[in-house]
């Protein structure tokens, strides 16, 4: 069954409702220029209230390794960092994405079919494909899913313009490992609409 990641979590209510409705992973955005940015100390409070079996993803954009480590240290529990994975959503190269203790998700912003060539052989555990837009992430727009034909879907996270109305078709066409939603379930940037989260997860799981 397809996994569902709800990204841009910035408050406890949205996190708990996402878990209640069946989300497999939650994303926390540490890119300071994003309207979905969450401070490490606030993220830690949310993380401590979540079940251990939920995948918790820390998202960074073109950040120094030192700051990534500082955020992970600030979000620690008794057994170490509370995060499960790292998501690098900027222009990070292969060397940067290696040497971390957590699983690495590398985002690729798709402007054309040719731009997907950058994924080939890239050292990451999972590849997230998102729509290209000025800036980084949260555009709410989609790209043609047919561009993904021929790619191994077992390591693919599909993002970019997904919402409750189109996620079933996306899963049926692409058969990704997971889908990622942010803008498509928001009431406003950084605040989720809980009914949309529920419907998105229901539709994705039914299709997958």
What labels would you give this structure?
two-stranded antiparallel sheet; alpha/beta
Please tell me how large the radius of gyration is.
Answer: 16 Å
Report the sheet with the most strands, covering strand number, pairing sense and barrel closure: 8 strands, parallel, barrel
Which class best fits the helix and strand makeup? alpha/beta
Strand content: 15-25%
Q: What strand line-up does the widest sheet have?
A: 1-2-3-6-7-8-9-10
Number of strands: 12
The chain-level mean pLDDT equals 94
Distance between the termini: 5 Å
Question: What does this entry look like structurally?
Answer:
This protein has 208 residues and is an alpha/beta fold. The protein contains 5 helices and 12 strands. It has helices at residues 12-20, 40-48, 65-74, 167-174, 194-207, and strands at 3-6, 25-29, 55-60, 76-77, 80-81, 85-88, 103-110, 126-131, 156-158, 178-181, 186-188, 191-192. Strands 1-2-3-6-7-8-9-10 form an 8-stranded parallel beta barrel. Helix 4 packs parallel to helix 5.
């Amino acid at each position: 069954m397809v996994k569902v990641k709800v990204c841009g979590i910035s408050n406890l209510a949205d996190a708990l409702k996402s878990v209640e409705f069946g989300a497999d992973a939650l994303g926390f955005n540490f890119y300071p220029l994003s309207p979905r940015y969450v401070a490490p100390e606030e993220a830690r409070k949310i993380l401590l209230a979540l079940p251990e079996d939920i995948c918790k993803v820390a998202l960074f954009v073109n950040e120094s390794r030192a700051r990534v480590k500082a955020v992970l240290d600030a979000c620690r529990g008794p057994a170490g960092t509370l995060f499960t994975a790292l998501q690098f959503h900027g222009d990070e190269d292969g060397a940067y994405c290696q040497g971390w203790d957590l699983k690495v998700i590398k985002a690729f912003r798709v402007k054309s079919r040719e731009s997907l060539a950058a994924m080939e052989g890239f050292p990451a555990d999972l590849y997230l494909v998102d729509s290209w837009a000025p800036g980084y992430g949260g555009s709410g727009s989609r790209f043609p899913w047919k561009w993904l034909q021929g790619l191994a879907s077992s390591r693919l996270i599909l993002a970019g313009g997904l919402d409750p109305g189109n996620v079933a078709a996306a899963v049926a066409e692409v058969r990704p490992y997971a889908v990622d939603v942010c803008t498509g379930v928001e009431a406003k940037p950084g605040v989720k609409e809980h009914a949309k989260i529920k419907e998105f997860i229901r539709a994705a799981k039914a299709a997958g």
